[in-house]
Amino acid sequence: MEKEGLVRRLADEKFNGESPTWREARFDQVRVLCAEDDENWYMLYTSAPLIIVQEKAMKNPPTCYECGGPVDYVARRLSVHFKEFTDMGVPAGGGEVRTKRIPYCPNCNTKPSGHEVISESVEESLRR
Ligand SMILES: [Zn+2]
Questions:
Q1: What is the pLDDT of residues 72-95, one digit of tens each?
Q2: pTM for this one?
Q3: Pairwise CA distance, residues 34 & 27, whole Å
Q4: Rounded distance from Cα 63 to ligand 1 centre (Å)
Q5: Contact present, 101 and 73 (Cβ < 8 Å)
Q6: Ligand 1 mean position, distance from CA 125 (Å)
Q7: Which pLDDT score is estimated for 102?
Q8: How many CA atoms lie within 13 A of 89 on its CB side?
Q9: Ligand 1: distance of its center to the CA of 50 in Å?
Q10: CB-neighbour burial class of residue 20 (10 A; exposed 0-12, middle 13-18, buried 19+)
Q11: How far is the CA of 97 from the centre of ligand 1 (A)?
Q12: Backbone angles phi, psi at 78, to 5 degrees
C-alpha cells in the first residue's frame, strides 16, 4: 500500500477519520513521525510505506500496521565519506562504519539495502 493510503486508513480506523497529530521522533536511531491514541504509538517511516504499531502496555513487540505481522530489521552499515574528498570525486573517509537498524515488514516492504554511504565534512566528523 502507498504511504498516503496507509495514513488515510490509520486516520479512518483509529482517529475517527481525523488526521492524527504527527510529531517528529526517533525510533531505533531512525527519524519517524509519531502519532498516538490511548492504546498505541504509531510510527510512520519516511523512507518506506510502513507504519509500526507499538502498544503502550509494551506487552508485545511492535507490529506492522498494514498486515499486523512482526517487524524485521536490517542492520545497515553506513560508510562515512569525507565531503571534502567526495566533492573532488574521491570517495575517501576515515574508514568509519556506523550501523543503523532499519525496520521493515517482510510482508509489505521490500528488504532495505544493508549498505549506505553518507558524506560529512572532516570538521563534522571530528565534532561528533
Ligand atoms: Zn506488513
A1: 999 888 888 888 877 777 777 777
A2: 0.75
A3: 9
A4: 8
A5: yes
A6: 36
A7: 87
A8: 0
A9: 8
A10: middle
A11: 30
A12: -105, 115
